[in-house]
Design a protein that fits this description.
binds biotin; 13 strands
């Protein structure tokens, strides 16, 4: 089934959903809806996104028919705010990790390594398959809610683009046709699962255990910090041990392997 207003509604009912053929940014539409009183779990989904917002002010463009573009409205407690992006990344990993289980015992499963590149890039076979951007809505000091935006490459063709070496899409890697509607339903199911269990404290471990650069030599591109990615804090901050033994605490940025 293709992704349309009708199929999305049918598949996800009773979740409140809004589907658009084309948007500037699902995060912006979800933020408006949040401020209009949307309940937790409400989701904005689009087929094409032309001014998608990425981390660190980047643009996230998605051609029609090629990706999962979704922003979920959540109403976490203030103390769980820092875990919203982690929640998105872990849920995306779980959606991806489930896929090879559809192969039967005698079929060859394609290469399929799912991991998180700090802070929250989901990687498949070492390449970025998904990005997460959460944005909080405040009313003075009160947290009004959060928009958890996720973009997942399903069948974007990166060949010949500047992203060719670093980005990947699920479908060609998987080698079988995938239904975006099914992926979406799975993803939202994993988000609900973790959202309901934030008080239990297990999300942090689920995130940390998937980080693929811990213990390795990394460089933080912003600020020229080099060293061993030694640990992460519950807040999500990365602790890097430099060669002189100093620990640098990094709260935002991009890391790359090596020096
Ligand atoms: C990143 O830079 O890695 C984060 C990218 C997040 C993109 C998603 S797509 C759905 C949602 N709407 C947006 O405008 N951005 C997020």
């Amino acid at each position: 089934m293709s992704l349309t207003a009708e199929t999305v509604q049918l598949k996800l009912t009773p979740r409140p959903v809004r589907f658009y053929a084309q948007v500037d940014s699902t995060n912006d539409l979800a933020m408006d809806w949040l401020r209009d009183g949307a309940s937790s779990g409400s989701a904005v989904i689009a087929d094409e996104q032309v001014k998608g917002k990425g981390r660190l002010g980047r643009v996230w463009y998605t051609p029609p028919g090629t990706a999962l573009i979704v922003s979920v409205i959540l109403h976490p407690k203030r103390e769980h705010l820092h875990q919203m992006t982690m929640l998105g990344a872990v849920a995306i990993c779980e959606m991806l990790e489930k896929l090879p289980h559809s192969f039967s015992g005698h079929e060859t499963v394609p290469e399929w390594h799912v991991g998180i590149k700090w802070p929250n890039d989901v990687q498949l076979n070492g390449r970025k398959v998904s990005g997460v951007l959460s944005e909080a809505a405040w009313e003075g000091d009160n947290l009004r809610g959060v928009v958890l935006g996720m973009g997942i490459n399903v069948r974007i063709d990166f060949a010949g683009t500047e992203l060719a070496d670093n980005a990947i899409s699920i479908e060609p890697a998987f080698g079988r046709k995938l239904e975006r509607l099914e992926l979406l339903a799975d993803l939202l199911g994993f988000i609900d699962y973790w959202y309901e269990r934030l008080d239990e404290g297990a999300l942090f471990d689920a995130w940390r255990s998937r980080l693929n650069m811990l213990g390795k030599h990394v460089t933080v591109q912003q600020g020229a910090i080099h060293g061993i990615a030694e640990a992460v804090e519950e807040s999500g901050a990365l602790l890097i041990r430099e060669t002189n033994g100093n620990i640098q605490r990094v709260v935002a940025g991009d890391i790359a392997l090596g020096s």
